[in-house]
Amino acid sequence: MKFTKEMVLDYADKLLIGLNEEEVNLVLEEFQIIDETISSVCDIPDLSKVEPMTHALDDFTFVLRSDELEDGKDGYPTEVLLRNAEKVENDEIVVPKVVG
Amino acid sequence: MKYIPKIGLEMHCEISKTKTKLFSRARNTYSMSPNTCVYPVDMAFPGTLPVLNKECVRLSLMASMILHCQIPEYFLFERKNYYYPDLPKGYQITQETKPIPVGIYGYLDYECEGQIKRIRINNIHLEEDAASLDHYYNTSTINYNRAGIPLLELVTEPDFHSANEAVSFLETMRSIYQYSGISEGDTKKGQIRCDVNVSIMDENLEESDPSNWGTKIEIKNVNSFGGVRDAINYEIKRQIHLKETNEYDAMPQQTRRWDEEEAKTKYMRSKVDAVDYKYFVEPNIPKLKIDPKWLEEIKESIPKLPLERKQKYIEEYGLSSYDAEVLIKDKDISDYFEECIALKIDAKDAANWVTVTILGELNKNDEKITDFYLTPSMLKEIIDAKNKNSISSKQAKEIFQKVITEKKEPKQFMQKENTQISDEKELTEIISKIVSQNESQKNAYLNGKTNLFDYFVGQVMKETKGKANPVMTKEILLKELQK
Amino acid sequence: MEEGIVSLHEKLVNKEITSEELVKKSLEKAKEAQEKYNAFVTILPDAKGVNKITSLLSGIPYGVKDNYSTKDVLSTGSSNTLKNYVPFFNATAVENLQKAGAVIIGKTVLDEFGMGGTGTTGHTGVVKNPWDETRMCAGSSSGSAASVACGVYPYALGSDTGDSIRKPAAYCGIVGYKPTYGMISRYGLFPFASSLDTCGVLTRSVEDAAIVVDAMKGLDENDMTSWDSSDIHLYDSLKKQTKAKKICIIPEICDIKRYPHASSELKEHLENFQKTLEICKSLGFTVEEVSIDENLLNALASVYIIISCAEATSNLSNLTGIIFGPRGNGTSTLDFIKDHRTKGFSPLIKRRFVIGSYVLQKENQERYFRNAQRVRRLIVDKMKEIFKEYDAVILPVGTGPAKKLKGPYDILDRNTTILEEHLQIGNFGGFPSITIPNGFIDGLPVGVNITGNCYEDEKVLQIASLLESKMPYKGQIAGRKEK
Predict the structure, then answer these.
(1) Residue A9 lies in a domain
(2) What is the Cα C437 distance to its own chain's centre?
(3) % of residues, chain B, pLDDT over 90
């Protein structure tokens, strides 16, 4: 499937960002190169049998968190959590009415 | 032409029994002041990372085992990416079916209208809940207390054929969650939410072939069991109507929403408009290898589940199927009953008291058995007293009432006027006085008028206002009249 | 301020200088660096000296890349989307340095959220190279590199997703060290691509890099991908006698014969690299050639773009202007989020988002994203095979010295050579990797990179330190080298 201008604009819209004409063309140009290299990669024999590498290390050692509160506290202080938000009323963040 | 409904469920249930959230150390709780149980990661502050709660993993594995699911060798999480104001990260950490979530391809036996039925489980997975929104005239407000609360989502195959079956399954599942200490399963607190999918197929077609199942309609966010029943019934009717007016084939695969007030399902979006969630593996949570020893421990810790308990009540304790059903409906009630058994109260007695008297009280006052003043050991005192004939059945009921209204120990009421006079010395005194006051009747009795014995009993009862222990009264009276 | 940590520490201990004086001097230099090179987003004029000297870092000033969360200090990620964000918690790495008594002087400019390698996309403007103001510092740790190079303080924190510490270090003639993934907690580091992001440091000597990372690292309960490195002592290991090292080069990357149309600059750069190899041999190292399939190497840049952009679109979805960051305009929530993001992000980031989103789409994910993850594994497997035989791989950084600021850059271009991109291998496998200065071309510094196997940071630093000791560039300050 070809990556078209319409698709670029549609994705941008879904990512909640706006792009101008020049930016759209740059995306398509850059993508052209990616697509070509990926095409050459696809020729690697048995590539589909390789397990995708999803993490930086394969041998993490870790323990799961024990289900305990930190010094008995419920959470961070409300005023601290909300101090960067521009619209707050009654300890909740206010946004325009969400429908659907 | 007749139709077979094909119904599947997605049941979301909050894990309410952990202290902290799935990925943060904020308290896992319902109903607190807004934004008080929140850690930075729950609001997606830049640079914060999820840290997986061990207890959530344990409980989810337990649920997977109860549902007879295949358990993966590794545990992985994925991101489900979409924008919504209640989703601070812009993605939900969840598990898709690839790689394997907590469990796949299981089943559960449940009872519906007296029959045991089996539902196939497609998968069960662990994920985080979103924040909650409150809506006002032209604004909405966001409270992040719910953000990050652990959620189990189970997906059934479309094996149900009626709303009754689906609801029976949900009830069974809820009690399983309660019995296994995973969740309170309280729909009023929004802890259980369902998506339902419904299609209808022509009765004469082969059901094992999925291509005959008809067009799948998904109904989102049904938040009560009653709602599930109504939504399914509404949807079946709607689809049959479309069949019969020849509009069915034109109906696209779609998502609808249940409007509780109007009691209707309403069109939301078609399948082609479906959001692409761009799932990919969460890189911040390493692959977790599940230790088989741990799995063994979890397996052993699964408590007896409702259906098992019910069978035991019927087979071992000789209860009726009806009583057993009533007892297992709520884990706390079943636990109360089992405590009575442990105290060696006769099972039938205990069942009778719990299902009739206690449940009656609880229902009357909308009270929970865990808050009920009268404990099983208090109940034992009352039942024991009655069995020793020191109180009558009627008195036992009265004492029961006094205990719960006055919130005092049963002893207190048994020693007072209300109790039977069973003291031999006390009774002998009363009886010998009565006999001596009725010299002529005594002589007549001794001369063969044996029916006068009842006259004496009547006098004793009159004197004691009916509280004399009748058995003892007769024994003592026999002796006193011979003197 | 132009001295190394140990020397400053000794002066503090011997009371030849106070921490207060160091801080004052550093602040003056910072202002100068800001005026000349635009290295800072924020300078903290109220920074206070520390009187109690408890560690090598106590009382000594340092800089922090502005994508680390710093408590009560503006932290922007060099993005308009966070231009007013003041965190209420410290990144773990910063917290650890705070505990060691280190003093933050300022927050340095980066390419917006670390995406980009030019130092030109930060919201406060372009960062200039202290060796030549018409040239770039590379990025994304541009401000940290510039400020360390011109002697504001002995070290500044950086982060490295592709080469964001190691390339600017080379362009600025200093040391840039990216430890094994997870050795330093990422908690509080604004994410770019979580499976590649690594915290690290820019310094003027290998010794200082070892000292700083010793203090930054450690298992963190807020980052599941961090690990326990308590038995790794980087600084101490530098003092140990080590046995002869076996290192290798990859001819497909650094052989001059592969570049028939090489510029004179590139030729000089590669010849200079050969001289460095001679020094290695003189140190008793074995230096051999190991080939890697060119097909894999050619795919490197695209694999990097695909993986990093995909993770980034998701990671930066929390930037909505709801909880933090300036609110956008718009009557609906989605409208104001879109306005916030459209205005807030630089064009480069927006383009990368679209690409990241495309490669994650259901229908594209297998071909692009998952194949990229597969090639990543093939490359990493190949490197691990190499590390079975060799202690480290040594390669030149980039195609020469810092590039001119004017001209098109940061657009993936067809002629991009593997020389520019190969440092990304270090992030693919989480390998420890360090760049040190190894010479000058036309009076501008160039660097050489040493990369080893995971968890073998001590070995990598030992090699770097030995090599550094045989070259005259340790501790150099920008502009002091006679041309």
Answers:
(1) yes
(2) 14
(3) 54
Number of structural domains (chain A) is 1
Q: Is the peptide bond before C130 cis (omega within 30 degrees of 0)?
A: no
ipTM score for this prediction: 0.96
Domain extent for A15: 1-47
Same domain, B331 and B457: no
Chain A neighbours, 3+ Cβ pairs < 8 A: B, C
**Residue found under tokens 């020849």:** B246
Give chain B positions within 8 Å (CB) of A65: 20, 25, 51-54
Residue holding tokens 């594995």?
B61
pLDDT of residue B366: 85
Q: Which chains have 3+ CB pairs within 8 A of C?
A: A, B
Amino acid sitting at position B96: E
Q: Which residues contact B39 (CB under 8 A, 6 or more apart)?
A: A75, A76, B21, B24, B25, B26, B48, B148
Asked if B389 and B419 touch (Cβ cutoff 8 Å), the reply is no
Q: How many domains does chain B have?
A: 3
pLDDT of residue C414: 44
Last residue of a domain, which of B296, B320, B345? B296
**Is B419 among the domain residues?**
no
Flag if C187 and B49 touch (Cβ within 8 Å).
yes
In a domain, B143, yes or no: yes
**Percent of chain B at pLDDT above 70?**
98
Q: CATH no. for residue B436?
A: 1.10.10
**Is B133 at the interface with chain A, CB within 8 A?**
yes
Whether A85 maps to a domain, the answer reads: no
Chain B residue closest in CA terms to C89: B40
Active site residues of C: 65, 140, 164
User: Residue B1: is its pLDDT beyond 70?
Assistant: no
| Percent of all residues in chain A with a pLDDT value above 70, rounded to a whole number | 98
Give the A:C interface size as CB pairs under 8 Å: 169
Residue from the list A60, A69, A94 with its beta carbon closest to the beta carbon of B139: A94
| Chain B residues 359-418 with a CB less than 8 Å from chain A | none
Put simply, the answer to whether C378 touches A50 (Cβ < 8 Å) is yes
User: Would you call B141 an interface residue with chain A, using a CB distance cutoff of 8 Å?
Assistant: yes
CA B104 to each of CA B22, B61, B109, B249, C441: distance values in angstroms, whole numbers, following the listed order: 21, 11, 16, 32, 61
Contact C157, C181 (CB under 8 A): no
> Between chains, do A18 and C333 touch, taking CB under 8 Å as contact?
no
Do both B431 and B473 map to the same domain? Answer: yes
Q: Residues C76-116: pLDDT tens digits?
A: 999 999 999 999 999 999 999 999 999 999 999 999 999 98
Helices and strands: H and E segment counts in chain A: 3, 2
pTM: 0.89
Residues within 8 A of A (CB atoms), B 76-115 only: 76, 83-86
Cβ separation B19–A67 shorter than 8 A? yes
Which of C75, C194, C317 minimises the CB distance to B283? C194
CB–CB of A85 and C358 under 8 A? no
The answer, yes or no, to whether residue B273 has pLDDT greater than 80, is no
In a domain, A8, yes or no: yes
Chains in contact with chain B (at least 3 beta-carbon pairs closer than 8 A): A, C
Q: Where do the domains of chain C lie, and which CATH numbers do they carry? A: 1-483 (3.90.1300.10)
From CA C244, how far away is CA C249, in angstroms rounded? 17
| B253 and B307 both lie in a single domain | no
Report CA B471 to chain centroid distance, whole Å.
45
pLDDT in tens, C331-352: 888 899 999 999 999 988 999 9
Domain range for B156: 3-296
Q: What is the rounded distance in angstroms from the CA atom of residue B278 to the CA atom of residue B280? A: 6
Question: Of B257, B279, B296, which one is at a domain's C-terminal end?
Answer: B296
In a domain, B251, yes or no: yes
B428 within domain boundaries: yes
Let me know if residue A27 belongs to a domain.
Answer: yes
Strand B78-81 versus strand B254-259 pairing type: unpaired
